[in-house]
């Protein structure tokens, strides 16, 4: 069991594909590829019958590169790591951190695969997969990728909890380009297991990870947000950006909608630990203000009502008798 996350998004602990399943997927891909290669070669042979030997050789090399190298690279790039053989076997190519592969990953895998799979009849790829703890061949090592199994029972999967709804989109302007992939993986692993950790140990781990993440982004952790909620919000923002690059703006907009952690008590932090959250200082209440005493009437005020005489406002001072 490998502690990884799939490209779109959230499931950890996917199983790395081992040699038998990968070999079956490669055989299916090679069978389809060679069938297409033979058909294209025959078509080009009929179309270039009138050309000289140099032109025929150039067309043969171009056909080889196009069909046996270019098409697999294009398929893996457009399908985000799912070729026909991998789709049949329930496999997928992802990055080391579990994110979706891009063109450069597929290009390195395809270029190295020509040598270690086609030219050596798969001997180098088999030896490398047997030696690697995660079943990676040489192309995966150079490309920084991993082939994982997608068909795992849902009950065995752990999911990265979404951040509290009021934190979604708060870190949209944060620069995440300098954060290493290993730190993302550590944050995802913590978020899926924070409910199983001792509160003090979990809080310390969250503070350490949040501090490292803040150091790489250049923005401090807000004092009003627990470290675990900060990790969830920034991880969710990164996943939304990955989904936008891979699937467009609609997927990113849908991915930004978050709900509270499943099974958590309702509250502003959505079930995230907040034991060490700063508490505002308690201000003692002000003493009640007694009403001012009513002004007393002196002898000078004993005059008939409505007399119209006014010697000034009463001060409330009563002279001694």
Q: Report strand order across the widest sheet.
A: 1-4
The Rg value, from CA coordinates, equals 35 Å
Q: Roughly what fraction of the amino acids lie in strands?
A: under 5%
Distance between the termini: 99 Å
Q: In percent, how helical is the residue content?
A: 40-55%
For the sheet with most strands, the description reads:
2 strands, antiparallel
The mean pLDDT is 75
- Form type: elongated
**SS-based class:** mainly alpha
Give the helix tally: 10
Number of strands: 4
| Multimer state | single chain
Given as residue ranges, the uncertain stretches (5+ residues, pLDDT < 50) are: 1-12, 153-157, 258-269, 275-283, 299-310
Task: Output the helix-strand order.
Answer: EHHHEHHHEEHHHH
Please name the defining characteristics of this protein.
two-stranded antiparallel ribbon, mainly alpha, 321 residues, 10 helices, disordered N terminus, 4% strand, elongated
Textual characterization of the structure:
By secondary structure, the protein is mainly alpha-helical. Helix content is 48%, strand content 4%. It is built from 10 helices and 4 strands; from the N terminus they run E-H-H-H-E-H-H-H-E-E-H-H-H-H. The chain has helices at 19-47, 53-78, 84-89, 103-119, 123-131, 138-143, 181-193, 199-217, 227-247, 249-255; strands at 11-12, 91-95, 145-149, 158-159. The strands form 2 sheets. A two-stranded antiparallel ribbon has the order 1-4. A two-stranded antiparallel ribbon has the order 2-3. The model is unreliable at 1-12, 153-157, 258-269, 275-283 and 299-310 (pLDDT under 50).
